[in-house]
């Protein structure tokens, strides 16, 4: 092929002569000088070849059009109308035996008036539409990028203003407290100074009496000493009596401070300044395909299908000393497994990820449901005992008891709040100090298990064999009902808001899609599954923990 600077004559080059070409033959695919061009036109075989200027050839120089058969390497000189494909002479007997002679025509006949063909017009239309769609997608993504930057600046402003307001408010509280300290200090100080001055005055007066006593003893007569002794003694007794009266009820004032428990708990319970949430919204970006004119590219939030989820058994082990139903089990961020045995031995037990029993955690009653607050702390409900506890699993003393108005069953932790199923009351929302923030008026007569995400609440209703999804204020979003899920028990949710739920009557583990419109049975008794009570999904490790009714735990890796 010619260099980028010059196109050389192909015929002259065959004779080892370097000569610049003036024209380009689109059939021979080589350049020709003036002499060689005249010679080619004089030949019958090449007389009808299309010649274009070198300047025009430069416009299509980098456009590759293959004129030879990809399979046989022969020139594409025929066209099969039946199969809409250009072929070589070798292709006909091998690939197009059934094609009639009228179906196979010369490539020149097929290419006649190609520039006015509907195929070219369709291609141009598809290209134009594709460009418009790509521009639209680019514009849409540029706007999305702009919105993300605006969100960043808005959040930074909120963080800054929140910190500023917090500082100003704390400064105000500090100033008020310092003024109170100054006032109380002055009051305590004045009381001490008053008594101190009286004592110093008493000291001066007694020193004066002592001096008078010495002078009387040295210089006065016996009569004066006799009378003076009694008079001075009376004066001293009077002064002592007066001072005693003053200090009889005097008490020391000791100042101390009790920091507000909310401020005191700030460093212990508030683990982060806030949480940046990324919400995913459905977005459709479409590009038209050249043949089908259909949308081929789509970007969706929460697009993972439950049918792509699979499980692989990692570990299975028996619970020490229990042959009764396990009501709950959770996998903590540090891989410790906590098991609640409500109906069996009534213990809270700790295991490692390999199934080794570490210890029994001391508790005040039989534990029903568990939720992890952080690596060290969990919350435990005690069912019909009508209370729950926040327990530090690394120590036995650090725990907080919260009384409930009724039987408390399922519990879930989310964003510094606890969501508790309380019988005849609903779903109660409370902070980590046990203060009730909200109560959702939901019929929980058949509800024993609950789980949450940052913006949704999920619970199972054993009475109706349904799974419910609602907002954080209790508005129902969807209800899932399937004949294959009977006697619904444990429930958990993954990072895509797909819901794991177990059925006990028909033994299975089912994954429900985030919109409640599709589901997949992941495990049944044919997979070695036994009667399940509890299920927990660890989002960091992507591990499913199952608690079997016979006192056994199974761990599955989710992929």
SSE topology:
Blueprint (H helix, E strand, L loop, with lengths): L9 H5 L8 E3 L4 E3 L1 H9 L8 E3 H7 L17 E3 L4 E3 L3 H5 L8 E3 H5 L6 H102 L2 H26 L13 H4 L1 H4 L41 E8 L9 E4 L5 E4 L7 E4 L5 E5 L7 E4 L4 E5 L5 E6 L6 E5 L4 E7 L2 E6 L3 E6 L4 E5 L6 E6 L3 E6 L4 E6 L4 E6 L6 E6 L5 E5 L4 E5 L6 E6 L7 E7 L4 E6 L3 E7 L1
Antiparallel strand pairs: 1-2, 1-3, 4-5, 4-6, 7-30, 8-9, 9-10, 10-11, 12-13, 13-14, 14-15, 16-17, 17-18, 18-19, 20-21, 21-22, 22-23, 24-25, 25-26, 26-27, 28-29, 29-30
Largest sheet descriptor? 4 strands, antiparallel
Reading side by side through the largest sheet, how are the strands ordered?
A: 7-30-29-28
Shape: elongated
- Helical percentage: 25-40%
Please tell me how large the radius of gyration is: 46 Å
Please count the helical segments: 9
The CA-CA distance between the termini, in Å, is: 53 Å
Indicate the structural class. alpha+beta
* Average pLDDT reading: 84
* Amount of beta strand: 25-35%
- Indicate the low-confidence ranges by residue numbers: 288-303
What is the total tally of β strands?
Answer: 30
Structure summarized in a few sentences:
With 559 residues, this protein is α+β, with helices and mostly antiparallel strands. The chain contains nine helices and 30 strands.
Structure commentary:
The strands form 8 sheets. The chain has a 4-stranded antiparallel beta sheet with strand order 7-30-29-28, with no helix packed on it. A 4-stranded antiparallel beta sheet has the order 8-9-10-11, with no helix packed on it. It has a 4-stranded antiparallel beta sheet with strand order 12-13-14-15, with no helix packed on it. Strand 8 (328-331) and strand 9 form a beta hairpin. It has helices at residues 10-14, 34-42, 54-60, 91-95, 107-111, 118-219, 222-247, 261-264, 266-269, and strands at residues 23-25, 30-32, 51-53, 78-80, 85-87, 104-106, 311-318, 328-331, 337-340, 348-351, 357-361, 369-372, 377-381, 387-392, 399-403, 408-414, 417-422, 426-431, 436-440, 447-452, 456-461, 466-471, 476-481, 488-493, 499-503, 508-512, 519-524, 532-538, 543-548, 552-558. It has 559 residues and is α+β, with helices and mostly antiparallel strands.
């Amino acid at each position: 092929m010619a260099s980028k600077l010059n196109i050389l004559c192909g015929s002259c080059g065959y004779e080892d002569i370097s000569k610049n070409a003036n024209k380009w033959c689109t059939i021979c695919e080589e350049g020709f000088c003036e002499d060689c061009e005249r010679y080619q036109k004089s030949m019958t075989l090449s007389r009808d070849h299309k010649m274009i200027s070198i300047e025009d050839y430069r416009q299509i120089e980098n456009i590759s059009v293959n004129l030879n058969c990809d399979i046989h390497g022969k020139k594409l000189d025929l066209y099969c109308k039946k199969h809409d494909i250009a072929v070589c002479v070798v292709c006909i007997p091998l690939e197009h035996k059934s094609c009639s002679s009228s179906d196979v025509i010369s490539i020149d006949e097929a290419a006649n008036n190609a520039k006015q063909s509907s195929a070219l017009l369709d291609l141009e239309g598809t290209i134009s539409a594709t460009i418009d769609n790509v521009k639209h997608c680019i514009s849409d993504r540029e706007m999305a990028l702009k919105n993300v930057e605006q969100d960043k600046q808005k959040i930074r402003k909120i963080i800054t203003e929140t910190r500023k307001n917090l500082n100003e408010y704390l400064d105000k509280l500090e100033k008020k407290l310092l003024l109170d300290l100054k006032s109380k200090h002055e009051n305590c100080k004045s009381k001490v100074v008053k008594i101190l001055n009286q004592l110093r005055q008493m000291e001066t007066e007694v020193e004066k009496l002592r001096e008078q006593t010495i002078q009387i003893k040295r210089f006065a007569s016996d009569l004066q000493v006799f009378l003076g002794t009694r008079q001075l003694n009376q004066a001293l007794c009077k002064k002592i009596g007066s001072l005693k009266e003053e200090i009889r009820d005097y008490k020391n004032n000791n100042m101390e401070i009790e920091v507000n428990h909310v401020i005191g708990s700030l460093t212990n319970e508030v683990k982060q300044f806030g949480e940046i949430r990324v919400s995913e919204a459905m977005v459709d970006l479409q590009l038209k395909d050249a043949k089908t004119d259909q949308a081929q590219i789509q970007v969706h939030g929460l697009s993972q299908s439950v049918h792509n989820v699979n499980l692989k058994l990692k570990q299975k082990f028996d619970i020490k000393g229990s042959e009764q139903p396990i009501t709950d089990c959770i996998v903590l961020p540090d891989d410790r497994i906590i098991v609640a045995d409500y109906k069996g031995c009534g213990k809270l037990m700790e295991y490692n990820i390999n199934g080794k029993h570490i210890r029994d955690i001391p508790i005040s009653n039989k534990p029903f449901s568990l939720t992890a607050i952080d690596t060290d702390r969990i919350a435990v409900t005690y069912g019909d005992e009508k209370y729950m506890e926040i327990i530090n699993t690394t120590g036995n003393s650090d725990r907080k008891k919260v009384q409930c108005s009724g039987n408390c069953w399922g519990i879930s932790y989310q964003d510094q709040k606890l969501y508790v199923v309380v019988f005849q009351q609903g779903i109660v929302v409370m902070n980590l100090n046990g203060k009730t923030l909200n109560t959702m008026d939901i019929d929980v007569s058949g509800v024993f298990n609950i789980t949450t995400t940052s913006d949704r609440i999920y619970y199972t209703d054993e009475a109706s064999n349904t799974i419910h999804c609602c907002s954080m204020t209790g508005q129902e979003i969807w209800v899932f009902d399937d004949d294959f899920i009977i006697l619904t028990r444990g429930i958990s949710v993954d990072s895509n808001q797909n819901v794991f739920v177990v059925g006990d009557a028909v033994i299975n583990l089912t994954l429900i899609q985030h919109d409640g419109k599709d589901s997949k049975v992941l495990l049944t008794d044919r997979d070695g599954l036994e009667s399940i009570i509890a299920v927990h999904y660890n989002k960091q490790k992507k591990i499913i923990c199952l608690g079997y009714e016979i006192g056994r735990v199974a761990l599955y890796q989710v992929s």
